[in-house]
Write a structure and sequence with these properties.
Length: 442
């Protein structure tokens, strides 16, 4: 019986975070495994892979499943769970080389009527948003708390330590907007993105005066201004925040529609197509972003920024800025550019022959994946995954560990008669989800 969908991974795998049953790096894309089911197959009832998110050595998969006519979301995890980032079961086991179902025993915490909504991973920490009709969303964190990663004040116990509880509820009760408190029973989490050690969420809620607001909050590392211009009691930059702080309030005339995080920077995309950034630009990752127009999507590597931009002719290109030493900018640079970090202007990634229209991108630590179609057609045989950048662990799936300086085609799905519809990048890892359905909803 032919496959109807497939999840593939490649790259760094010392803790089994690729979910292929081994702990060896993989240099070509290979099928993932789920506990109790044949390699290369998804759990029965799975309709689609909604999201893949990776930390330093752990991975989580958010699956949409259907049973008895009802759909719900499940979370599976693999890799390093020793800090509690995959829940108590895998913390006791320490590692898992295939995806295991994540059971947080929500009923024991009085959350049995809640369901999974969002999931995201930072270095050794995991964030999960729960929803329940008629109630405020619940934001939980679990794992390490090196730099206030858990978002729960007073939990930080120093590097390499983790909290005792299986998970923690992140509170937004203390937040005020222009001096007016937010009603704690009104919070909805619209989006969630994490960097190496900082987290940014977009929230919707109601102030105690009845005004409805959408705003952005964050916590974690902040020394470089990646959470805004925060000042410590001593007068210097705040090194990290252990609980959420308001970063910005949405302008109703040009609201934030997406954001992405690098190691020391944060980038926002607005409905108008403009872009803004916070934090370090030592590698040029924020340079010139204010001049970009008509952006439709974005992503960040540790030290780079990547924007999907409408070229006005029906196609989309990628504009890249930031670190380039391992080919991250996806273009040939002039001789003698070493040492020019921070001086290069944002420029287009150079696909060979300029024949590709980019549908979506995904950024790993210092590599980028893109789903593209040949210009002038949307026929399925012309859909492929391209990649470029750092490739030390074989994370670009080319069969080697050589860095890629100009985009190359790395997977088409032709042999499996499948179409790549989603890609994700992690810490030296890459993921492809392919199906027979070429729906481009991202």
């Amino acid at each position: 019986m032919p496959l109807t969908s497939l999840l593939l991974s490649s790259g760094s795998n010392a803790h089994g975070q690729l979910s292929n049953g081994t702990s060896e790096d993989v240099h070509k894309f290979a099928p993932c495994s789920f506990l109790g089911y044949p390699t290369g197959t998804l759990p029965p009832g799975t309709r689609r892979v909604v999201h893949i998110t990776s930390g330093a050595n752990h991975t989580l998969a958010l699956l949409e499943t259907e049973a008895e006519g009802k759909r719900h979301l499940e979370i599976w995890g693999c890799g390093d769970g020793s800090s509690g980032q995959l829940g108590s079961v895998l913390q006791a086991r320490r590692t898992a080389s295939v995806f295991w179902p994540i059971d947080l025993s929500l009923k024991n915490a009085g959350l049995d009527n809640y369901s999974y909504k969002l999931v995201c991973a930072s270095w050794e920490t995991t964030y999960i948003v729960l929803s329940c009709e008629g109630k405020a969303d619940v934001f939980i964190s679990m794992g390490a708390d090196d730099f206030g990663d858990l978002g729960v004040e007073g939990m930080n116990k120093g590097r390499g330590k983790q909290a005792i509880l299986p998970f923690h509820i992140v509170s937004f009760d203390h937040l005020t907007l222009e001096g007016v408190p937010v009603r704690k029973d009104s919070i909805t989490v619209e989006s969630l993105v994490s960097g190496q050690h900082h987290v940014v969420v977009q929230l919707r809620g109601t102030l105690v005066n009845g005004k409805e607001v959408t705003f952005v909050a964050g916590w974690g590392t902040s020394r470089h201004g990646q959470l805004g211009n925060l000042v410590s009691p001593g007068g210097g930059p705040t090194p990290f925040l252990t609980k959420p702080a308001v970063i910005s309030i949405d302008d109703s005339h040009d609201r934030i529609i997406a954001h992405a995080l690098g190691s020391q920077h944060t980038v926002f995309l607005y409905a108008s197509g403009k872009v803004s950034g916070l934090g370090s630009s030592r590698r040029g990752q924020l340079q010139g972003l204010e001049n970009v127009k008509h952006a439709t999507g974005l992503g960040c590597t540790w030290n780079g920024t990547y924007l999907l931009v409408n070229d006005g002719q029906g196609d989309t290109r990628v504009i890249a800025a930031g670190s380039y030493m391992h080919g991250q900018l996806g273009r040939e640079l002039p001789v003698g550019t070493s040492g020019l970090a921070g001086t290069l202007k944002p420029s287009a990634v150079e696909f060979p022959g300029d024949t590709q229209s980019v549908k979506s991108i995904a950024c790993g630590t210092e590599h980028v994946l893109a789903i593209c179609t040949s210009k002038g057609t949307d026929r399925s045989p012309d859909v492929a995954v391209w990649g470029w950048g750092w490739n030390e662990h074989g994370n670009l799936g080319t069969g080697s560990t050589n860095n890629i300086f100009v985009p190359v085609k790395i997977w088409t799905g032709a042999e499996e008669d499948l179409i790549p519809v989603r890609v994700w990048g992690g810490s030296g890892t890459s993921w492809i989800y392919a199906t027979h359905d070429a729906d481009w909803v991202q």
